[in-house]
Amino acid sequence: MTSWLHPALFFFLGSLLLPFFQGKARKIILLLIPVLAIIAVAAAEQGIYGQYRFLGIDGVFGRVDKLSLIFAWVFTIMAFLGALYALHREESGHHIAGFLYVGSSLGAIFAGDYFTLFIFWEIMAFSSVFLIWYRRTKKSLDAGFRYLLFHVFGGLLFFTGMMLTYFKTGSMAFESIAPANAGLAEYLILWGFALNAAVLPLHAWLPDAYPEATVEGAVFLCAFTTKTAVYVLARGFAGFEVLAIMGTAMTVFGVCYAVIENDIRRVLAYHIVSQVGYMVAGIGIGTHLALNGAAAHAFAHILYKALLFMGAGAVLYMTGTAKLTQLGGLYKTMPLTMIFYIVGAVSIAGFPLFSGFVSKSMIVASAHQEGRLWLMNLLNLAGIGTFLSVGLKVTYFAFFGKGEPVTAKEPPKNMLWAMGITSLMCLVIGVYPDVLSVLLPFASDYRPYNLHHLSEALQLLSFTGLVFFLLLPKLSPEEKINLDVDYLYRKAVWYFLRFDEKVIAVFDNLWGELYRTLGLRALFKSADLSYGFDRKAIDGVVDGSAVATVDLGSTVRRMQTGRIQTYIALSMIIVFVVVMLFAVL
Amino acid sequence: MKLAEWIGTLRENLKTLKIVMIVYLAVLVLFDVLLSRDDAHFLIDKIYAYWAIFGTIGCFVLIKFSKGIAHMFLSKDEDYYD
């Protein structure tokens, strides 16, 4: 067995080093660590590394194969670009959170078992939330907490599924699951993963949290969480019909919201939902071409979506707002930012010569090949919406528009460089698709550049442009926000609280009174009885059980202390026992 | 910067730009009509300029639908949650 250096190691070590360095030295570390990680990925040979045994579980830190490598490539490249973009940032805490986030994502994609995956999965959630909190506004604080709660919930789904699987099979191995064999445990894991991929209806955390993140943090966020989820879905759940349907629904859902949103970063956040929908749909279709497409699209998407977030971030950083209603005419003052943003926009829209054309078409073509014309048409409808909102609407209203040009200038050099390099990569992938196809998990002879596909893409995009200019007045952004599923836990919960105050609390008081007068008396009585029984009947016979009964008595007494943590602990134990019983049976 | 000037020139000659664009769209449709349809599997592969029609109608519907639903009940003031 050859040795293997886990690329995540560099990021974890780097995050330990960062607090001790300032200024130039820190900048060098920030750029050097991702470069070392890229080299480690380049040097990695396929195989199984880092097996360990812990708590009776066989764990694997490093499952290196083509599927994990393509994600490792783009993650490490993205870490470099993100670090470059964030280079000017002073707080080392922000950089540390970024590195921990990247490191744990890499840990997750190389994990060969559920247990290892779960550990990294949770580190991801808890490190990434700081990229939101560092914005230091009330809004971002609240959004961060909601983000965290949501991911803890997803983690619980995953954890429950993982434990059920373990009790059923005695193994934690994370392997591909056949749709026919999937039961409750597998579906719990599926939905735990799907939550991180922002699959409907568990998507609301994404457009809620990402637009509130820091300018630099959003660039990291848009790359890792959802794509790690795409990886684990591709690894475990290829060919699940529910994913094909939900993925396609996501693509259309995302663009519908993107058409009506006002904040550029919210538009982009809904486009993550939409674009990840393509990947999820590809995974659901499950053929080799579709899975290749999902992996390729994840690769291309990370780059162009980061580029778009960089552009939007640069606008926000320099003008203080990302709202389309307050922007306009930036082509005069931020031309470079505009060019880079447009490169990202045409890449996501899938223009020929740009990366989206190569990767998105694989998924659409696989739907066509399988004869799933509904999916194909809906995916192309989402493609229209993508160009309409990211390509035309945002570009027009932010960089052109009728209003007076907003006073601004180009962002700092490191931001421009990061955008420039990312733009170049989008172009290279679009012009030489082979650089991407050598990394794909399955051998493929798919050629994106054929006349039919060119004709299809150009017709779709050009006629979208036509309708855009015809309906331009209809599309002007409005200073509004739009309700989404997060309404349920942001607003409806207050109605519930009021209901609680008026109805449940009254009932609760009544019940509490009843309990105090009847329940407690009965409890004391029974305790007395058992104590008496104990002293008279058993004590003389078996000493040990007497001790146990006294213990029980004190346990019962402890139950009555009214301390909240006792009740929580008790209810958790009950849940645990129920799960255990369920699993054993 | 040069780019801003070019864009300025384009904005002043919107009429010419429009004509160029319409010609471009016509060429696209013509190109699709001339493509071979020998290996067409499905009906949509055989229809001439299918994706042009789809793009036009789809884009129209998407805008109308999204904006309509937003105005009906999704849109709220920005301080709605505060």
How many whole angstroms does the radius of gyration of chain A measure?
27 Å
Helix count of chain B equals 4
Poorly predicted segments of chain A: none
Give the overall pLDDT of chain B as a whole number. Answer: 86
Kindly name the structural category of chain B.
Answer: mainly alpha
Shape of chain A: globular
**Overall 3D form of chain B:** flat
Q: Largest interface, and how many residues on either side?
A: A-B, 45 and 41 residues
Give the terminus-to-terminus CA distance of chain B: 43 Å
* Strand-residue proportion of chain B: under 5%
What's the tally of helices of chain A?
A: 22
Query: Approximately how much helix is present in the residues of chain A?
Result: over 70%
Can you walk me through this structure?
The complex is a heterodimer of chains A (585) and B (82). By secondary structure, chain A is mainly alpha-helical. Chain A has helices at residues 7-17, 23-43, 66-85, 92-110, 114-133, 138-169, 184-196, 205-209, 215-236, 241-260, 264-285, 288-319, 335-349, 355-369, 373-399, 413-431, 434-437, 451-470, 487-490, 492-538, 543-559, 564-584, and strands at residues 47-54, 57-64, 481-482. Chain A has a two-stranded antiparallel sheet with strand order 1-2. In chain A, β1 (47-54) and β2 (57-64) form a beta hairpin. In chain A, α3 packs antiparallel against α4 (92-110) and α11 (264-285) runs parallel beside α14 (355-369). With 82 residues, chain B is an all-alpha fold. Helices cover 74% and strands 2% of the residues of chain B. Chain B has helices spanning 2-12, 14-34, 43-46, 50-74, and one strand at residues 75-76. Chain B starts with a helix and ends in a 6-residue tail after the last strand. Chains A and B meet through α10, α15, α18 and β3 of A and α1, α2, α4 and β1 of B.
